[in-house]
Amino acid sequence: MDTERIGLSRVSSFLPTLSFPCAFFDPQYRGVLDHLGYGNEGVQRGQKRSELAQMDDNTIHAFIKRLDAVLIASGHLFLWVDKFHIAQGIGNWIVGTSLDLVDFIAWNKDRMGMGYRTRRFSEYLIVLQKEPRKAKGVWKVHNIPDIWTEKVENRNGVHPKPIGLQGELIEAVTNRGDIVVDPASGSFSVMEACKIRGRHFLGCDLNG
């Protein structure tokens, strides 16, 4: 069974609706790699990435639609995307949901990536909120910058994400003891952030 089927089946079958204040989703797609054709699929750091099952737009939409269902009113979904998907837009991923885009964070990885023209230093986190859309009484941390610099030293996993940033976001929208959902956990950085912040974690991946 592939990654997306495992993750989506667990989100669909085991998670009750209207139950969780916060979820993260890092969909597995090639985005920039497929459209720019760097030719490193299977060479060094591109090898593990190329071996992963890829999610098409329909699969990503299905995940997001189900995550929308399990979030409580005014709950948040933090969606990781790359530069290609920022440029192309994600409107088709949230069609038919009650999610609205409410903020946007650029993560400066402090590590140069690929690019025919500019070289990529950043990934992007789209902040989606379930209706009713509001910040007062829901978002509790007010010093998170919209450009976040954090170098990931531990390279476990193909797409490791910044534990510090994710921890701050968890602190902002949840309370101690709450459950944070991540159905495509990858390097399980959200789990590590939950441990540090005193939250419970519920997530899975192909080998999780």
Provide a descriptive summary of the structure in words.
The protein is an alpha/beta fold and 208 residues long. The protein contains seven helices and seven strands; from the N terminus they run H-E-H-H-H-E-H-E-E-E-H-E-H-E. It has helices at residues 3-14, 32-36, 45-51, 57-70, 83-88, 163-173, 189-197; strands spanning 20-25, 71-81, 99-108, 122-130, 147-149, 179-182, 200-203. The chain has a seven-stranded mixed sheet with strand order 5-3-4-2-1-6-7, sandwiched between helices. Helix 1 (3-14) runs parallel beside helix 4 (57-70) and helix 6 (163-173) packs across helix 7 (189-197). The chain is globular and about 45 Å long. The mean pLDDT is 86.
| Poorly predicted residue ranges | none
Order of helices and strands: HEHHHEHEEEHEHE
Overall pLDDT: 86
Q: Nearest-angstrom radius of gyration?
A: 16 Å
Helix tally?
Answer: 7
The count of β-strands is 7
End-to-end gap: 13 Å
Q: How much helical structure, as a percent, in the residues?
A: 25-40%
Main sheet: strands, sense, barrel: 7 strands, mixed
Strand content: 15-25%
Q: Structural class of the helix and strand makeup?
A: alpha/beta
Major β-sheet strand ordering? 5-3-4-2-1-6-7
Q: Outline, from the CA principal axes?
A: globular
Architecture blueprint of SSEs:
Blueprint: H1 3-14, E1 20-25, H2 32-36, H3 45-51, H4 57-70, E2 71-81, H5 83-88, E3 99-108, E4 122-130, E5 147-149, H6 163-173, E6 179-182, H7 189-197, E7 200-203
Parallel strand pairs: 1-2, 1-6, 3-5, 6-7
Antiparallel strand pairs: 2-4, 3-4
